[in-house]
Write a structure and sequence with these properties.
By secondary structure, the chain is of the alpha/beta class. The chain contains 17 helices and 19 strands. Helix 5 runs antiparallel to helix 7 and helix 7 crosses helix 8.
Amino acid sequence: MLMAVAPLKRNEAVSDDRAIVIGAGLGGLAAAMRLGAKGYAVTVLDKLDRTGGRGSAITQDGHRFDLGPTIVTVPQVFEDLWADCGRDFRKDVDLRPLEPFYEIRWPDGAKFRAGSDPAQMLEEVARLSPRDVKGFQRFLKDAQARYVVGFEGMVAKPMHRLIDTIKVLPTFARLRADRSIYAHASGRVKDEKLRMALSFHPLFIGGNPMHVTSIYALVAHLETRFGVHYAMGGVQAIADAMADVVRAQGGEIRHNTVADEIILTDGAAQGVRLDDGTEVKAPVVVSNADAGYTYDHLLRNHPRRRWTDKKLSRKRWSMGLYVWYFGTKGTADKWADVGHHTILNGPRYKGLLKDIFIKGKLSDDMSLYVHRPSVTDPTVAPAGDDTFYVLSPVPHLGWKNAVDWAAEEPVYRAKVAAEVEKLIPGFQKHISTELVFTPETFRDRYLSPHGCGFSIEPRILQSAWFRPHNVSEEARGLYLVGAGTHPGAGLPGVVSSAEVLGKLVPDRPRRAGYERLAAE
């Protein structure tokens, strides 16, 4: 068993092969893996008591609640990461394809099941809106073209030089990237339900479908090409496997450790000062903290040329999340028509999005994402029981007259329960344990600006070069990974941000004993 690296002494100087990663989220862990593979001695500092960040889990009364992301849409990014570290992802993580991917339901009883079989997908479209079958097929072709440009062409490539974004502008113009994903879907299909089904995906990365670029149609191709998967043990199992690789490389992960400031000398990163005053020195610092938090807090005592408080205040931020986690007793054989993923639409689509993203208003109606992993993974609940989480997009905390969640939460929970009752009747009398996250939880637990669920909203003028760069403009030796930097939120995005990092940070000579450590 590999022993942890001995803690640094207070204010200890270190050699130039050492790197610090702030945050053990999926982006930070991927960054640590890539730095370890490059020969760096990596120390990961994390505020929480376990790895994973927003992808971590909490176990309560025998139920494991996966707190954040629940699916893997592009296993390739993990496979490539593991391969670049000399490992096999499939040996470390048990990934299961889901079928169907998810089911969408509307208040009038209509349903739409998304899955991997193209013929069945056409049947679903024909059942919902026969006149839109050809338009749907055109949308899928559009999605493939946008995948080639937006995913293959940009996701894992550095975008910190303006010229790199300028080069893709002609293609973006041809693909009408200026149109929103909803507007693009509306140009292909006429049925409002189908328009929703083809345009809602940016909500999974914090974007308003009415404003996020049509390039995000590529998600439909991602689903078709790679499928939708679930990691047995949840995303926490992926995070734990990543941590194992970091430690096998000789790296160290320190939990319950809060980074308070990035230390700069003459404009160059020199390490991190913790909240207890301890200084951890390194010439390479990678922040997996939110980009907004990195600049307005971790660099608060240093002049900033681009990412000033004023500029950050002008950014459009992603929505907040209200998440109700609960376990139910003796229900494994109940609600047979409720699968792993269900999306419950409220009576409004455009109006609700306007309330959340434009008005900052908490609406009485809602659309919900219901996650029931216990139909796939028996480890999430005691035998015979179920584990659920119900997620509702809500306004973030940055609005005037922001929601007072201490007062509003019980009221809002009752409204959510009334909607969930329509899907899983009688569920409340079976609840054996529960836990609630509001935007205030995201603010306090993850140090997320405005309690946002996904950092800066992925609008077209907040993407690529316009987004906080992976190599910081504010300090030499400072790099950023995670949802708030390029390419953006979502598991493929945050893991790919570390791939970009790997192209920017120079290799270091292998440390003595590295090969032995990696093999253990």
